[in-house]
Amino acid sequence: MTALVLVAPGSEEIETVAIVDTLVRGGIEVVLASCCPTGARQICASRGVQIVADCHLDELTTRDFELIVVPGGLPGSEVIRDTPLAIDLLREQAALGRWRAAICAAPAVVLHHHGLLEDASATCHPGFQARLPAAQLSTARVVRDDVHRLITSQGPGTAIEFALELVRVLRGDETARAVAGPMVMP
C-alpha cells in the first residue's frame, strides 16, 4: 500500500504530520512530496515549522499510488492548486477510481477549484464551507464518499480522525483500530 502526500510552503503542519504519521503507523508506505515552486524539498509550513519532504513532486519515480492526500493550510493549498503536476496526478487518480483525500481548505481551494469533487459529499474547514456547493456540503468532521473514493475533513482538530479513516479504507477496520488504540483515540 502506498500513499502520496502533497506538501507546499504554507501547508498546515498538524495536518501534514498527523496524516503521514498515522499512515505509517498503519503500515502504509508514504511519499511526502514537495510542490514548492523553487524545487526545494524543505518547506516552511503555515505556522513556521520546517518540514522536509522525501522528494520534490518533479522527482517522483511512480504515479501509482492507492491514495493521494492534500493537507490544508494557506497559502499551501493555493500553491498545490497552482501546481499543474499535482492537479494532473489528482485527475488521474480520480479517473482510475483510486482514493483521494483532502482536509481543511484543500477540498474547496484545490479539489473544488479544479472540478475534482464531482458530485461527491464533502466537507472542509468551516471558513471555506461557503465555497462548496450546498447540495454536496456535509458538516461532519470526516466525510467518506465511497462512490467517488473521496475522503474530506475539516481541519487540524480532525486530522487524526481523518488519517485513521484513510488507514481504514486502505487497510481495513482492524488495522485502523490497532493504530487508534495506542494513540489513545476515543
UniProtKB/TrEMBL annotation:
Record-linked PANTHER family: PARKINSON DISEASE PROTEIN 7 HOMOLOG (PTHR48094:SF12), PROTEIN/NUCLEIC ACID DEGLYCASE DJ-1-RELATED (PTHR48094)
Domain of life: Bacteria
Protein name: DJ-1 family protein
InterPro entries: Class_I_gatase-like, DJ-1, DJ-1/PfpI, Prot/Nucl_acid_deglycase
Pfam families per record: DJ-1_PfpI (PF01965)
Keyword terms: Repeat
Domain (DJ-1/PfpI) ranges: 2-168
Native source organism of the sequence: Aeromonas media
GO cellular component, as recorded: cytoplasm
GO biological process: glyoxal metabolic process
